[in-house]
Amino acid sequence: MLINDEWTQKGYIDEAAPEGIDLKKEIRRMCEEKNAIILAHYYTIGDIQDVADFVGDSLALARKAAETDASIMVMCGVHFMAETCKLLSPGKTVICPDLNAGCSLADSCNADDLKKFKDEHPGYKVVSYVNTTAAVKALTDVVVTSGNAKKVIDQLPADEKLIFGPDYNLGNYINEVTGREMLLWNGGCHVHERFSVEEIIKLKKQYPEAVVMAHLECKGPVLALADVKGSTADMLRFARENSATQFIVATEAGILHEMQRTCPDKEFIPVPPEISEGGVGCHCNECQYMKMNTLLKVYNSLRYEWPQVEIDAEVAVDAVKPIERMLELS
Fold first, then answer.
1. Is 125 helix (H, G, I), strand (E, B) or coil?
2. 3-state class (DSSP) for residue 211
3. pTM of the model as a whole
4. Biggest alpha carbon–alpha carbon distance for the chain
5. Phi-psi category of 35—alpha, beta or left, where left has phi over 0 and alpha has psi -120 to 50?
6. What is the pLDDT of residues 55-111, one digit of tens each?
7. In this structure, what DSSP letter does residue 312 have?
8. Helices marked H in 147-276 — which ranges?
9. Using alpha carbons only, what angle is made at residue 264 by residues 222 and 290, rounded to the nearest 5 degrees?
10. Are 246 and 269 in contact (CB under 8 A)?
11. 75, 114, 210 from 228: Cα distances, Å
């Protein structure tokens, strides 16, 4: 099947769907016809979450997809998530609806820089957050998620010298709760770095009974104000199980769709970002890369089975090892 050169340059297909077509119904029809599944991260738009077979965090989605007999998986998230799917399902077709959907956190640590840093610190093992490229994972000893980082690191020898990257905030939190002194890579997520401490304080006054929940990628002062600190899955689980009816949420605003779907009788209030100099504040904090996933792109990527994500075979062999090591420890 030929792919238009302009589409290739763009990294996605923008061909309009036939007039009057119901994109959601057509996506589901093609999934059945092609033995395909749709994976949607919590931070994608609600319409994509609604049409997906599975909604979740990046690694959980990749693991779930690997357990299915699907021939094609469409990873609606960002590029490194599609790479992780390919690592765990090397024999399947993995599609990323827009190859330009990157990640500021993954981009904050490239493989060449990490290799140089490793060379400058002989004897250190590398612990990498899952939000990294396959090339960085290939230089890593063990991968962690925000949900299992403490558990995994607690099982490593107490005297082992560790480099943790790329998320500085997550690494700093793990150092605090474990007593470790890991060397921290100075990377971060542009969304979680922007949450406003002042706005959280205002919201706590406005909603005095509300539970404050914050993702571990947030800055220390934000985490200090939180009642619940954890991954998106941790926050969802707490909201479902806790008797509180109001929650102030400091993570990417797309999660509110799933929170409201699973807890329709509860109220979820997003924490706004800090206001840039001369700018105007908004009521939520969104990742523009996640929002690059649209129903039209999902439709076109399924129709043409492109853009496909491939990983160099040698890189893939090394990149899957730290994931397997994490699964052994967690």
1. strand
2. strand
3. 0.94
4. 64
5. left
6. 999 999 999 999 999 999 999 999 999 999 999 999 999 999 999 999 999 999 999
7. -
8. 149-154, 168-178, 197-206, 220-224, 232-241, 255-262
9. 55
10. yes
11. 29, 32, 11
